[in-house]
Specification:
The chain is an alpha/beta fold and 414 residues long. The chain is built from 13 helices and 14 strands. It has two domains: 5-248, Peroxisomal Thiolase, Chain A, domain 1 (3-Layer(aba) Sandwich), CATH 3.40.47; 260-409, Peroxisomal Thiolase, Chain A, domain 1, CATH 3.40.47. 33% of the residues lie in helices and 18% in strands. It has a ten-stranded mixed beta sheet, sandwiched between helices. Strands 2-3 form a two-stranded antiparallel ribbon. Strands 11-12 form a two-stranded antiparallel sheet. β13 and β14 (402-409) form a beta hairpin. α3 (72-88) crosses α6 (141-150), α7 packs across α13 and α10 (277-290) crosses α11. The two termini are 16 Å apart. It is an enzyme of class 2 (transferase). InterPro entries: 3-oxoacyl-ACP_synth-2 (IPR017568), Beta-ketoacyl_synthase (IPR000794), Ketoacyl_synth_C (IPR014031), Ketoacyl_synth_N (IPR014030), PKS_Beta-ketoAc_synthase_dom (IPR020841), Thiolase-like (IPR016039). It catalyses: a fatty acyl-[ACP] + malonyl-[ACP] + H(+) = a 3-oxoacyl-[ACP] + holo-[ACP] + CO2; (9Z)-hexadecenoyl-[ACP] + malonyl-[ACP] + H(+) = 3-oxo-(11Z)-octadecenoyl-[ACP] + holo-[ACP] + CO2. GO terms for molecular function: 3-oxoacyl-[acyl-carrier-protein] synthase activity.
Length: 414
């Protein structure tokens, strides 16, 4: 039999809070983390807004020497992982290290390092490129360095599935515990790509909002006037643990993880499938894996990017998967407040889904002022809502047609 898996620790580093309590309180208050870019001079860019992490002090988590040898996405992951471990009250030692693993994804990895070291190469020559360039840049280093910093010696890997990376990482970690390959997993996503190259690329695609005059209202999922996503950054890491281990040590349990599904659109490099088939199959797979009836799903934490195509096609997918029940469940997108954290989005949104169940509270979709008639579900517009919740699913979809969905429920000792 598959083992039951529960969530016992949370760690969040976001544009609206550098730890979980602040993040959650700002989220349900509808506070925006969007503003003008400070990381570089964006004067000549069509998009000059982003959702940056503010006042992050890496020296709280790693020493000065290591800061110089790690990209920001890795520093974010280490911070979130250490927060999650502390929240779970887990000490890693020689007796348990081999049963505790790490699975943290990143969609892009160390792009800031790549850009800076390319400049060094062009301006000063190959001998001046840092010997730490490669390990600073590669995406698996979030999981690798979290393992080194925490002592976790169990399964260690990372998913790279664009904006589904965090959700896939949590799903794969869930399976490792279910099947007995680990007892505890630190899992989620991390990203920090607010850089000139990233903005040039996404701007050339036409993917970013150009509402530069009103940054806080630029991310508007499911709104008729949405014009693109706002890039965010940060990290979300959760502690998954076998129920038997959690109960044996008297752990606080936030929720139970019960399902994971994924699929491929097999359609287009960047556009989701217009019939919603791939996203619907991902949701159906997660619900089936969880052993739920479709009518038992209460809340969907949507991918909800604020792009014209994603929001419409995700709505179509939800209707395709849930039929009439689509109009009875709640859907919301926190990207309206934190922007799109790319590979970190799934980690932060998993935390949101878990806390929605734990606090029986639906986070809002802010800036939903002009409803799109083709997006006609209950998106919890503009204000949080108290609700009686039993289950929640969280969607993440990535370039290349990657779809991933994870499912949680209120924990019951049965």
């Amino acid at each position: 039999m598959k083992r039951r898996v529960v969530v016992t620790g949370l760690g969040a580093l976001t544009p609206i809070g550098n730890e979980v309590v602040t993040f959650w309180n700002n989220l349900i208050a509808g506070k925006s983390g969007l503003g003008y870019i400070t990381r570089f001079d964006a004067t000549d860019y069509p998009t000059r807004i982003a959702a940056e992490v503010k006042d992050f002090d890496s020296l709280q988590y790693i020493d000065k020497k290591e800061v110089r040898r790690t990209d920001l996405f890795v520093q974010y992951a280490i911070a979130a992982a250490k927060m999650a471990l502390q929240d779970a009250d887990i000490q890693i030692d020689d007796q348990n290290a081999e049963r505790i693993g790490v699975y943290i994804g990143s969609g892009i990895g160390g792009l800031p390092t790549l850009e800076s070291q390319h400049s060094v190469l062009m301006e000063k020559g190959p001998k001046r490129v840092s010997p730490f360039f490669i390990p600073m840049m590669i995406g698996n280093m979030a999981s690798g360095l979290v393992s080194i910093h925490t002592g976790a010696k169990g399964p260690n890997s990372s998913s790279v599935t664009a904006c589904a990376s965090g959700t896939n990482s949590i799903g794969e970690a869930f399976r490792l515990i279910q099947h007995g390959d680990a007892d505890v997993m630190l899992c989620g996503g991390t990203e920090s790509t607010i850089t000139p190259m990233a903005f040039a690329g996404f701007s050339s695609m036409g993917a970013l909002s150009r509402n530069n005059d009103d940054p806080e209202r630029a991310s508007r999922p499911f709104d008729k006037e949405r014009d693109g996503f706002v890039m965010g950054e940060g990290s979300g890491v959760i502690v998954l643990e076998s129920l038997e281990r959690a109960e044996a040590r008297g752990a606080r349990i936030y929720a139970e993880m019960i399902g994971y599904g994924m699929s491929a659109d097999a359609f287009h490099l960047t556009s989701p499938a217009p019939d919603g088939n791939g996203a619907a199959r991902s949701m159906l797979a997660a619900v089936s894996n969880a052993g739920l009836e479709l009518t038992e799903v209460d809340y969907i934490n949507a991918h909800g990017t604020s792009t014209p195509l994603n929001d419409l096609y995700e709505t179509i997918a939800i209707k395709r998967a849930f039929g009439d029940h689509a109009y009875k469940l709640a859907v919301s997108s926190i990207k309206s407040m934190v922007g799109h954290l790319l590979g970190a989005a799934g980690g932060i949104e998993a935390i949101t889904s878990v806390l929605a169940l734990y606090h029986q509270t639906l986070p809002p979709t802010t800036n939903l002022e002009h409803p799109d008639p083709e997006c006609d579900l209950d998106y919890v517009p503009n204000e949080m809502r108290k609700a009686s919740l039993r289950t929640a699913i969280s969607n993440s979809f990535g370039f290349g047609g990657h779809n991933a969905t994870i499912a949680f429920k209120v924990y019951e000792d049965v």
